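FAQ: What does a ligand-bound record look like?

Like this one, built around glyoxylic acid:
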Amino acid sequence: GKYRVVSTKSMPGTRWIRLLTDNDCRLEICTEAKTILSVDDILALIGDRCDAVIGQLTEDWGEVLFSALKRAGGTAFSNMAVGYNNVDVEAANRNGIAVGNTPGVLTETTAELAASLTLAAARRIVEADQFMRAGLYEGWLPHLFVGNLLKGQTVGVIGAGRIGSAYARMMIEGFKMNLIYYDLYQATRLEKFVTAYGQFLKANGEQPVTWKRAATMEDVLREADVISLHPVLDKTTYHLINPERLAIMKKDAVLVNASRGPVIDEVALVEHLKANPMFRVGLDVFEDEPYMKPGLADMKNAVVVPHIASASKWTREGMATLAALNVLGKIKGYPVWGNPNQVEPFLKESATPPP
Ligand code: GLV
Ligand code: GLV
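The answer part, i.e. the structure of the complex:
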């Protein structure tokens, strides 16, 4: 292989490996057993000669690593994730390194996990499962694990991009919920979908669903029965959910986060969960992964899973494939089956990779 490409982790599937090795690359996959590599570990991997790196969202890609990659002759870095808050894109560009991400292939898988968390929280699935396994079930009771009905209620979406819109469609079509959303951009296709579905329901003699684009995020928090967070994490969305905003949400609202942990002030969330037993959350991400803030693990009104929103086989293989294509597109100077997903300045729509 002419080009030395390093992957900081083993990734699902073999397609991404074949793509690289069939296209003049010598691939080195890090075999280090520890879950999260340090900057020093990655510096050692880059070494004196490295054309491109495929990295993970748990790694801190800043000036130190990008200048080392530049010195090693590198020109490309691909994050195996759609979110790239772990990447200092300016530092990469200063060092002449193109940055890629893996949007598109994880949209539906991530939205389905957010929908799963919504149902699990609303219907108290995990609490009920633990009750069952603990041998506490003594027979049906009218009050046993009573939760929230979603039908006819309002789903609030903060950040109606690819994932937020896919989630909204699932909740609207699946559970006939009304939509209120907040985004800097108008979600035109989503609005059209809700309008058309509403007309379909009406034509069938059912209550139509409705949509509303909120003028402020507070309007969503006040009005919605279920709120799902789908923003990009940056300075403007850090602690977007803070004590003031928790306070205006309905006392029995369901809050879901499958975006990035720091979007929620997690210490404030734990306090809110303690004070409001009917308020429920479903969390895929945490402020300080892999840790949870003190007290969260004890809250029965929280469903917590370890950052698995994109974890379907199809999607993870697709992410790995896209990450390899990003790297190839840059180092070989051609698009393999489309344009590499280069991050600048906004995420671009991507095609779905061939099966
Ligand atoms: C996962 O969290 C991703 O951003 O792809
Ligand atoms: C509950 O199981 C019912 O039959 O209502």
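Follow-up question: can I read anything off the structure? Yes, for example: Residues 107-304 form a domain with the Rossmann fold fold (CATH 3.40.50.720).
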